[in-house]
Structure formats: structure tokens, C-alpha cells
Design brief:
With about 300 residues, the protein is mainly α. It is built from 13 helices and 4 strands. The chain has helices spanning about 15-30, 35-40, 45-55, 70-80, 85-90, 95-115, 135-155, 160-170, 185-195, 230-240, 245-255, 275-280, 295-300, and strands at about 115-120, 125, 210-215, 260. Helix 7 (about 135-155) packs antiparallel against helix 9 (about 185-195) and helix 10 packs antiparallel against helix 11 (about 245-255). About 25% of the residues are buried. The model is unreliable at about 1-5, about 130-135 and about 140-300 (pLDDT under 50). The protein binds a DNA duplex (21 and 21 nucleotides) through helix 3 and helix 6.
DNA sequence: AAATTTTCCAACCGCATTGTT
DNA sequence: TAACAATGCGGTTGGAAAATT
């Protein structure tokens, strides 16, 4: 049975211990973590073995730097799920909850703080008007970045030769080009955003290139469907089945469904029923809810 | 080059949840 | 159904490595 606690080893694992654990699990798998250490010839508790396997030895682990896409996914999922690292990890293949938690605490959290965003609530610290719409913080960060970009770009535009280049670029219709390079549309969305933040919900559709709508009960819109039970139930049945989470997610989705952006630049459609059922929650990430300015390059610089 | 500070991450701890008898 | 054991999760910490002074 259990070894006296005093005889159990603690602290960093040695290569020899790793070899023993790996070899044992390769051969026998892991069924009973409590008895495993003794069988594998290790002076560790089962808990320690389990952790070592899950966080380090597992062969399917993807180690190394997080990609920009992974980082986006983490931020977005954190806005949905909070500090539920295991739930977040479930949507990032080959990453562990511990790794994600560390990455959040050491990098993302600090960056959000620097941007004036509360990493817990995802809300800008300085603006109490923003109510329960957690993801708005992400929009705010997008807005700040967009504004910074516009300021930068406006200086470039002053040059006639640059103006010419920009015009031709806009006509290229490049598949890979970022849609928000169209500045007037970008500004319209920023205006719309501002009106949400300040509680002024009147956005004239006539003044916008695409439908930009705010308000409640937009149930005929795709995004509103994100609040349906189907979405929540699917999610929970796969992962943990906790009813309170279904309720919580639905509540959040209900809030979010009151804000529906359909626009060629900021395209938030929410997780549609089909996609949640077919591919999982992670599908809502990156391309649907992007941070406009950040690129692979400046991600590397961070 | 040395001292100090900061960053990063593996590992631990305690509590919650789930499974078993 | 209660009691206990096993497992899982998230917060925290210690120390090594990197960066800064």
C-alpha cells in the first residue's frame, strides 16, 4: 500500500526517473496512479507521477513557444471560460493546462495589464460604463490597436506616392490581405464600437458598408444562435457535463447575442450550432474574432 | 565580471469532484 | 446513502535561467 510520506521523493525529476516512468507507461499504460510508482520502481507518489506524465513525458505534447493563433485562442477562451485551464487546454491540441496557465500568468496577463485591461474580467479598467459584456474588452484592445495603426497610417497617407500605392493595394482584392486595411470601413466599426461603449446604440445602417447592428433580441441573426441550449449542451456533453457551466455559458452568450456585428472587417458570427457540434468550441477562434493589428512579426517581438 | 532583479516554468499543495464499495 | 479512495483542477511556490544594473 501507500509508502510512508517521508520516504517519497519530491522535487525535480531525474532522467532516470523519467525513463522508468516512461517505460512503465509505454508497457502497461496508466490505470492506477497510486500503485504505479511502486510497480515502476519509483519513490514518488502517484500524484507526482501523473503530473510528470501529463505535463512533461506524454509523447503527444507540443513543446515550445505558443503561436500567435494559439495565443488568440487562449485569450478568447479565457474570456468565455475564465481560469478553467483544463477546459481551455481541451481546445488547444497537445498543450497542457499547466503550460497554458503559466503562459497566461507570465505573458498574456501582463500584456493585458499594460493595455489597461483587467485580465480577470477582460474589461478595460478605466471605463466603468462597460457592463457585463466580457468580450468587449477584446474589442477595446482591437480598437486601441486599430487607432494606433490609423495614426501611423495617416502619416504615411500624407505622401501622394503612398496614397497611390494604397489605392492600388485596395483594388487588388488579395486573398491574404487583411480586410481592415480599408480605413473608412474600419472607422465605421470603430464608431459603432464607441457607441456601444458609451451607451449610444443608434448606429445608422445607411452609414455603414455592411450591417452593423446593436440591440437585443437579434435572434434571427447567426450570432444570436450562440445562446441556444444546443450550443451549451454540445459543449458540456463532450467535456464535463456540468450543468452550471451550460447555464453560465448560455447566460454569457445571451448577453453577447445582443451585440451582433456583421461586417467585412470584424466578423463575429459566434459558434454556430453546426460548427460546435462538428468541430468543437475552438472553432470560434482567430478568424472570427481577430485582433486586427497584431502580426506574426510583432508577436515574435513580444 | 559580479551582483541583483526579473522571468519562466516544473512541481507541489489543498480542495473539489468522481468513482467505488 | 455514506464513507472512503482516487483522480483532477487551479493557485502558488521555489529555483534555475536570463536580463539588467
Amino acid at each position: 500500500m501507500a509508502r510512508p510520506a517521508g520516504l517519497l521523493k519530491k522535487g525535480p525529476w531525474t532522467p532516470d526517473e523519467d525513463r522508468k516512468l516512461f517505460a512503465y507507461i509505454q508497457q502497461h499504460g496508466f490505470r492506477n496512479w497510486r500503485t504505479l510508482p511502486e510497480k515502476a520502481g519509483l519513490q514518488r507518489c502517484g500524484k507526482s507521477c501523473r503530473l510528470r506524465w501529463i505535463n512533461y513525458l506524454r509523447p503527444d505534447l507540443k513543446r515550445g513557444k505558443f503561436s500567435l493563433q494559439e495565443e488568440h485562442t487562449i485569450i478568447q477562451l479565457h474570456a468565455f471560460l475564465g481560469n478553467r485551464w483544463s477546459a481551455i487546454a481541451a481546445h488547444l491540441p497537445n498543450r497542457t493546462d499547466n503550460e497554458i496557465k503559466n503562459y497566461w500568468n507570465t505573458r498574456i496577463k501582463k500584456r493585458l495589464n499594460r493595455m489597461g485591461i483587467d485580465p480577470t474580467t477582460h474589461k478595460p479598467r478605466s471605463n466603468p460604463l462597460i457592463g457585463t459584456l466580457n468580450h468587449m474588452a477584446q474589442w477595446e484592445s482591437a480598437r486601441l490597436e486599430a487607432e494606433a495603426r490609423l495614426v501611423k497610417d495617416s502619416k504615411i497617407i500624407l505622401s501622394p506616392s503612398n496614397q497611390k500605392n494604397i489605392n492600388s493595394n485596395n483594388n487588388n482584392n488579395n486573398k491574404g490581405s487583411r480586410p481592415w486595411t480599408n480605413k473608412s470601413e474600419c472607422l465605421d466599426v470603430l464608431k459603432a464600437w464607441k457607441s456601444v461603449v458609451t451607451g449610444m446604440f443608434a448606429v445608422s445602417a445607411a452609414n455603414n458598408p455592411g450591417p452593423v447592428m446593436f440591440g437585443s433580441n437579434q435572434s434571427s441573426w447567426g450570432a444570436a444562435e450562440a445562446g441556444s441550449n444546443i450550443v451549451g449542451e454540445e459543449l458540456m456533453s463532450e467535456d464535463d457535463g456540468s450543468k452550471y457551466k451550460v447555464a453560465e455559458l448560455n447566460e454569457r452568450f445571451d448577453n453577447w447575442s445582443s451585440m451582433c456585428l456583421h461586417d467585412s472587417m470584424y466578423h463575429w458570427t459566434g459558434p454556430t450550432t453546426e460548427r460546435c457540434m462538428g468541430e468543437g468550441f475552438s472553432d470560434i477562434s482567430v478568424h472570427d474574432f481577430d485582433y486586427p493589428i497584431q502580426t506574426e512579426q510583432n508577436h515574435q517581438d513580444l
